[in-house]
């Protein structure tokens, strides 16, 4: 392990001091530059490498197949074209009603306040999504408010991304206050990978902001492997749970990263150490550039069957696929061909 002094730094400086150069990443991990075929450099130009040093610190030095490294290192295979792998697999562009808004599910309304992420995950289904043209500005709030008032079934707003926890507490507070002013909204959900990759983001200001809201707050973090959840990260997550904030995890099933029952079992138990409950296990969205993370349906079925047989029911994440146009995530167990 490499010993950075990153834990001394606040989250803002960590966020402004990411590794974005593939060669630097390999150097830091004592890995040979031979890993980087020219295609990988091209891939990193299409979707930039971005990884916090605190996350790199959880990687194993000298291991080119480290499950955390594989999630972020640009790969020449990303340039391959594969049938069925497209730029907008979830049809989000079609579902876009107002800037920053995705309303596909009856009671839940998804709000994107930033296109920025602290980390770029190579398998991300949003890697081609045109965020920057599509963010709500302050003056859009009135339109969003009006829209919500005409959708009385909506009782939950999900801040998603991009990653909403790359925003300042001040900006978050402003949006939370706006949402609190709508009586119909009871639940605020925050989807974020930042607590896993920069645990310092869960600072006291954020905690007090969340625990003092009249909304029920749910934080859904995104961790794919137990190695991402070291003692420090777990203690930060546990701190939130101890303030009565519900914390759930979603993971993506990824070839080479967590494609074994044992990896998923370890992940669930580690999450539970921090009192974080496993929520979803997503199969890969068929996004262009991510084909090399894809698994065959029968492999998925075999892995998941073993997970089901090994874990208590409350630690089994729901295996789901998102299908464009569906009114909910589609459960996959027993239906591996979906
Ligand atoms: C996944 C998703 C949600 C939340 O779905 P849950 O099943 O409640 O977690 C809401 N809106 C959109 C557009 C989504 O993709
Ligand atoms: S949206 Fe989530 S999965 Fe996609 S790059 Fe950002 S942190 Fe990673």
TrEMBL record:
<dbReference type="InterPro" id="IPR022462">
    <property type="entry name" value="EpmB"/>
</dbReference>
<dbReference type="GO" id="GO:0046872">
    <property type="term" value="F:metal ion binding"/>
</dbReference>
<feature type="binding site">
    <location>
        <position position="121"/>
    </location>
    <ligand>
        <name>[4Fe-4S] cluster</name>
    </ligand>
</feature>
<dbReference type="GO" id="GO:0016853">
    <property type="term" value="F:isomerase activity"/>
</dbReference>
<comment type="similarity">
    <text>Belongs to the radical SAM superfamily. KamA family.</text>
</comment>
<keyword id="KW-0479">Metal-binding</keyword>
<feature type="domain" description="Radical SAM core">
    <location>
        <begin position="103"/>
        <end position="326"/>
    </location>
</feature>
<keyword id="KW-0411">Iron-sulfur</keyword>
<dbReference type="GO" id="GO:0051539">
    <property type="term" value="F:4 iron, 4 sulfur cluster binding"/>
</dbReference>
<dbReference type="InterPro" id="IPR013785">
    <property type="entry name" value="Aldolase_TIM"/>
</dbReference>
<dbReference type="Pfam" id="PF04055">
    <property type="entry name" value="Radical_SAM"/>
</dbReference>
<keyword id="KW-0413">Isomerase</keyword>
<keyword id="KW-0004">4Fe-4S</keyword>
<keyword id="KW-0408">Iron</keyword>
<protein>
    <recommendedName>
        <fullName>L-lysine 2,3-aminomutase</fullName>
    </recommendedName>
</protein>
<dbReference type="InterPro" id="IPR003739">
    <property type="entry name" value="Lys_aminomutase/Glu_NH3_mut"/>
</dbReference>
<feature type="modified residue" description="N6-(pyridoxal phosphate)lysine">
    <location>
        <position position="329"/>
    </location>
</feature>
<keyword id="KW-0663">Pyridoxal phosphate</keyword>
<feature type="binding site">
    <location>
        <position position="117"/>
    </location>
    <ligand>
        <name>[4Fe-4S] cluster</name>
    </ligand>
</feature>
<keyword id="KW-0949">S-adenosyl-L-methionine</keyword>
<dbReference type="InterPro" id="IPR007197">
    <property type="entry name" value="rSAM"/>
</dbReference>
<dbReference type="InterPro" id="IPR058240">
    <property type="entry name" value="rSAM_sf"/>
</dbReference>
<feature type="binding site">
    <location>
        <position position="124"/>
    </location>
    <ligand>
        <name>[4Fe-4S] cluster</name>
    </ligand>
</feature>
């Amino acid at each position: 392990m490499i010993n950075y002094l990153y834990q001394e730094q606040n989250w803002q400086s960590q966020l402004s001091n990411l590794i974005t150069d593939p060669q630097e990443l390999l150097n830091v991990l004592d890995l040979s530059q031979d890993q980087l075929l020219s295609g990988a450099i091209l891939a990193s130009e299409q979707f930039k490498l971005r990884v916090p040093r605190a996350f790199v610190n959880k990687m194993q030095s000298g291991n080119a197949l480290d499950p955390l490294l594989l999630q972020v290192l640009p790969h020449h295979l990303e340039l391959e074209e594969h049938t069925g792998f497209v730029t907008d697999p979830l049809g989000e562009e079609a579902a876009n009603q107002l800037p920053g808004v995705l309303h596909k599910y009856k009671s839940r309304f998804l709000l994107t306040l930033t296109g920025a992420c602290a980390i770029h995950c190579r398998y991300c289904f949003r890697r081609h999504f045109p965020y920057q043209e599509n963010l709500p500005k302050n003056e859009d709030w009135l339109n969003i408010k009006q829209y919500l008032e005409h959708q009385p079934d909506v009782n939950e707003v999900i801040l998603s991304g991009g990653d909403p926890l790359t925003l300042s507490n001040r900006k978050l507070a402003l949006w939370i206050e706006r949402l609190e002013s709508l009586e119909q909204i009871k639940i605020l959900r925050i989807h974020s990978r930042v607590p896993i990759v920069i645990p310092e983001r869960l600072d006291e200001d954020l905690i007090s902001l969340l625990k003092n809201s009249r909304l029920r707050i749910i934080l859904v973090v995104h961790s794919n492997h137990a190695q991402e959840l070291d003692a420090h990260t777990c203690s930060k997550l546990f701190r939130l749970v101890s303030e009565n904030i519900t914390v759930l995890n979603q993971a993506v099933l990824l070839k080479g990263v967590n494609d074994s029952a044992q990896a998923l079992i370890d992940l669930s138990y580690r999450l539970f150490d921090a009192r974080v409950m496993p929520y979803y296990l997503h199969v890969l969205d068929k996004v262009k550039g991510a084909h090399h993370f894809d698994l065959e349906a029968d492999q998925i079925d075999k892995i998941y069957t073993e997970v089901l047989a090994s874990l208590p029911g409350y630690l089994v994440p729901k295996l789901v696929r998102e299908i464009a146009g569906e009114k909910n995530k589609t459960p996959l167990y027993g239906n591996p061909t979906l």
